[in-house]
Amino acid sequence: MIDREQVLHVARLARLRLDEEEIEPLARELSAILDHVAHIGELDLDGVAPTSHVVEIEDALRADEPHECLPRAVALAQAPAVSPDGKGFAVPSPQA
Amino acid sequence: MSSADIIALSAAEAAHQIATGALSANDLFEAYRARAQADDLNCFTWLASAGGETGAGAAEDLRERPLAGVPLAVKDLFCTAGIPSQSGSKILAGYEPPYTATAVARLQTAGAPLLGKTNQDEFAMGSSNENSAFGPVLNPWDRERVPGGSSGGSAAAVAAGLAPWALGTDTGGSIRQPAALCGIVGLKPTYGAVSRYGMIAFASSLDQAGPLTRDVTDAALLLKHMVGRDPRDATSLRLPTEIELPGREDLKGVRLGVPAELTGGSGEGDAGGRGADGREAGIEPGVLDAFRAALGLAADLGAEIVETVSLPHAPHALSAYYVLAPAEASSNLARFDGVRYGLRAREGATESDLLEMYERTRHDGFGPEVKRRIMLGTYALSAGYYDAYYGRAQRVRTRIAEDFAGAFAEVDFIVTPTAPTVAFELGSKTDDPLAMYMNDYCTVPMSLAGIPAISIPCGLSDGLPIGLQLAGPAFSENELLDAAYALESALGFDGSLARA
Amino acid sequence: MSELEPVIGLEIHVQLKTRTKMFCGCELSFGEPPNTRTCPVCLGLPGALPVANAQAIHLGLVIGLALGSTLAPRSVFHRKNYFYPDLPKGYQISQYDEPLCGGGSLGEVRIHRVHLEEDAAKLTHVGESGRIHGSHESVVDFNRGGTPLAEIVTEPDLRSAEQASEWLKLLRTTLRQLGVSDVNMEEGSLRCDANISLRPTGSQELGTKTELKNMNSFRFIERGIDAEIARQERILNDGGQVEQETLHYDPNSGAITSLRSKEEAHDYRYFPEPDLVPVRIDEQMLARAQGALVELPAARAERFERELGLSADSARMLAFRAEFGGFFEAALSAQVDVASQVLANWVTVELAGRLGDGVDPTGAHVTPRAIAELAGMVSAKQISVGAARQVLDKLIAEGGDPAEIVQAEGLQSLGDPDELADIVAAALAANPDAATRVREGNAKAIGPIVGHVMRETKGRADGGEVTRLVHEQLGV
Ligand SMILES: [Mg+2]
Ligand SMILES: [Zn+2]
């Protein structure tokens, strides 16, 4: 039920490159899983509210008080590429 | 004390020995470190060096603290400052975070030094630990078999005596199932009881940290020092009562509910629970036998076994789970984009093309199961499919929570086998994702309902351990631990074989 | 061919004036060096979790109350999923189908909703001169990432670029008075997108709209919208169809370009943010937000009309230029016997006209009491309007007491009617030609005669009285 085009579309949304030989097996596996999962479509769920969180939590807001920030060297320590001035994260330009 | 004597102690016993001065924290740490260093099960992805930083301070100070210096193995996905925290993924290979997860920091403060980081399925997606970028973990009961997953390294390390206890995480069964397959105790607390801050997320509304230990007392002791509201996790909460060490010896007046949906039809001739499409959950006869025998023991202890309790929507739990968890995961894993940390694909990528950098980085960095779930989750959330998948799954979740609420009006706990099978052979299910997902059949409903559940070893089948799952209402951790303790004492499971 | 009518709705992003970011405790950045205001949360590090800032929610409620919105007792944060280097988590935490506030209006424009979200980081595109290894690179600074934003969405109630820009100014004044934001377009704390479509005048149906992004000054908003209206007009008049797309207006070239290609048509895969729990507004929060409300321009204008009987124009001017409104209310409180509308005219026409654009009367030499007294003297016919204008010039230049100035300059009205009659008679004698023409029915010819009287009286004479006397003496 999921074809090659859909696999490629979803992969693009997820920013995943797929090798040619990955596409067909993924289409097959996803179809099998979705076939199974589709059985929840048979349940009568009219008027049932969706649950996002199972436990109600109060006081989940944060006071507007500052904490200490990371030193820049720490923030950039794991960056795959840093700008030549050493101050920012370097990425390929989206406008290129 | 000889090394063998030291290793024979449970974590609580070792803590007691240190407190009384009979054992030094340093000797304990080194005894375990030596064993962990000789690990041939591939349990660890990082190990503390001798005299290295463990985050708990000097050994002399530990005696005074509640965990007294008993070292802790921690699943790779917990962030530990300056120590590799890779969540079993190539995309995070060598990643060292600048901060430590709240749960780990609390345990370190309570006096548990960090022994090592344990192997796991990549981003906690898996039930066999075969999805790790750092190789599979072997089951100490049989090295041809898997330890379960995703907390497979933590479970195998505790079972094999390479660590006194360990921290794992459970999203749909990832603590309970490997605990069952390795013959140890694993507890998934009420959702929110333990802070998720610093846990590299799989599925945020389901992820929960918990202990993997040799016995129920150790589980209670470790849990006691992990729980609590964390201002950095908006979904964390304060348990209404403190965690106590268990001491109950009988089960008088305790009603144990055995839902037909998760226990193979309770003698109606059906050999296994049936999935929504009739596909068998496939509870093995050996597992059912051990489970039934344990129920007999429970009855002997005074428990009332209630076979009429029903969880009508439980057969749909796995379907709902395999929509909700991948959907959340697809979003949680979007941050691995090669910009701020982790892998960035360079070879073959035109450096100037952002889209190509993203796509190649994620192609190279994620393993097949992670890709599968990202695809599944992205699809389930995409335009036109949300209502049919995500929206419905959330409603099924409501039904499942209602089922449990109804059941707990009649019984104190639900009991099921933890996993449908004993540990299976490496590679036997890797080609069939659905068959692999069936491992979670009995554990996923509790995850969706956010309720606490514990797995304890209840016997062997063909020399391989079997787990019994006890689940209670939200916040019933103390009662659950007490009941598990009573049953554990009566069962008298001997796990020392795996430590040999 | 039928006339086309523009239909415009605005989406405004306002940076909220909190101390810390929306979901972490990093202080907001005002030009700090790059990447010095970050933490695991706003860098999107693995394992980090958001916690919502209570003050941001408070400010969102204040905005909602000010716009007459319905405040949701329960609202939900959603994840808006898309990849971009300025978005560290691969999703923006925003609100979707359960926003903080819904409905309301400001002036003639209805509000669709107000919701909270986090700002993106700053992405700097390195141009040709900054090319690295022969390739284009961009640099990300996460200082701004996570700044709290309120997004205000209007209904498509605007019909011209000018109206849109005027309304946005009203919104800016409103938000500034509330103290919820710096609302500075140049600094980016107020940003505006416009949804624009055209339809045949009189039609109720909406045409296909385009979204014009991030115009960063009032001038550019007007120009951008006008340019887009013109572009759509050309397409429709040529028999073409407008495509639904996101556009960018380049103020330098005047060009409008498409921002996103079609194959990347957005699919944001919204779902409830599982790391946060729904926001529940309790009575305490509501009371606090209500307490923070000040009177807003629209309400003030309405009050000026209703309570003081001011004309709509005066009321609007005084309400929307708050500095004049304040001056006017201070003048009112001087308790001088003068009609409110007369006093309002002295403030909105005479004073504002003399001060010129952008000058705040609060710092001027002339005090509210002085204006009130001056207007009172005119009303009591103690001085003529012309004399009063001279006094006002002096007040603006030097300040002082109007009564003293009138005394010193001898500007009081002529109290004795006989004295004025004599001066009029002398004026008629001095302008016999004009007198003849007035007698013959040429009303305009009266000018030189009145001018003569005014010269003689240094403007103290009441113009109406002079005209009456001229007519009386000439027997017309
Ligand atoms: Mg927005
Ligand atoms: Zn921050």
Account of the protein in words:
The complex is a heterotrimer of chains A (96), B (500) and C (476). In chain A, helix 1 crosses helix 2. With 96 residues, chain A is mainly alpha-helical. Helices cover 34% and strands 4% of the residues of chain A. In chain B, 35% of the residues lie in helices and 11% in strands. About 3% of the residues of chain B have low confidence. With 500 residues, chain B is an alpha/beta fold. Chain B folds into 3 domains: 222 residues, Alpha-Beta Complex (Amidase signature (AS) enzymes); 136 residues, no CATH class; 69 residues, no CATH class. The radius of gyration of chain B is 21 Å and the shape is globular. Chain C has 15 helices and 17 strands. In chain C, a hairpin with a 2-residue loop joins strand 7 and strand 8. In chain C, helix 9 runs antiparallel to helix 10 and helix 12 packs across helix 14. Chains in contact: A-B, A-C, B-C. Chains A and B meet through helix 1, helix 2 and strand 1 of A and helix 11, helix 12, helix 13, helix 14 and helix 15 of B. Strand 1 of chain A pairs antiparallel with strand 10 of chain C. Bound molecules: magnesium ion (MG) and zinc ion (ZN). The site of zinc ion has 8 residues of chain C, from loops.
| Arithmetic mean of pLDDT of chain C | 90
| Beginning-to-end CA distance, first to last residue of chain C | 58 Å
Oligomerization status of the protein chains: heterotrimer
Shape of chain C: elongated
Please work out how many helical segments of chain A DSSP would assign: 3
Radius of gyration of chain A over alpha carbons?
23 Å
| SSE-based structural type of chain A | mainly alpha
Which key features would you list for this structure?
heterotrimer; B: 500 residues; alpha/beta; Amidase signature (AS) enzymes; 17 helices; C: 476 residues; Arc Repressor Mutant, subunit A; ten-stranded mixed beta sheet; three-stranded antiparallel beta sheet; 15 helices; 18% strand; binds magnesium ion
List the helices and strands and how they pair.
The complex is a heterotrimer of chains A (96), B (500) and C (476).
Chain A: H1 4-13, H2 20-37, H3 72-76, E1 89-92
Helix pairs in contact in A: 1-2
Chain B: H1 3-8, H2 11-20, H3 25-37, E1 44-47, H4 59-62, E2 72-75, H5 102-109, E3 114-118, H6 152-159, E4 165-170, H7 176-182, E5 185-188, E6 208-213, H8 216-224, E7 255-257, H9 260-263, H10 285-300, E8 304-306, H11 317-332, H12 354-365, H13 368-381, H14 387-410, E9 413-417, H15 433-437, H16 444-449, E10 453-461, E11 464-471, H17 477-491
Chain C: E1 4-15, H1 54-66, E2 70-71, E3 74-75, E4 77-81, E5 91-95, E6 101-102, E7 105-106, E8 109-118, E9 122-125, E10 137-141, E11 148-154, H2 161-178, E12 190-200, E13 210-215, H3 218-237, E14 246-249, E15 256-258, E16 271-272, E17 279-280, H4 283-291, H5 297-308, H6 312-320, H7 322-332, H8 340-355, H9 368-379, H10 385-398, H11 402-409, H12 417-430, H13 432-439, H14 447-457, H15 463-474
Parallel strand pairs in C: 13-14
Antiparallel strand pairs in C: 1-11, 1-12, 2-6, 3-17, 4-5, 4-16, 6-8, 7-8, 8-11, 9-10, 12-13, 14-15
Helix pairs in contact in C: 1-4, 2-3, 5-6, 6-7, 6-8, 7-8, 7-9, 8-9, 8-10, 9-10, 12-14, 12-15, 14-15
Bound molecules: magnesium ion and zinc ion.
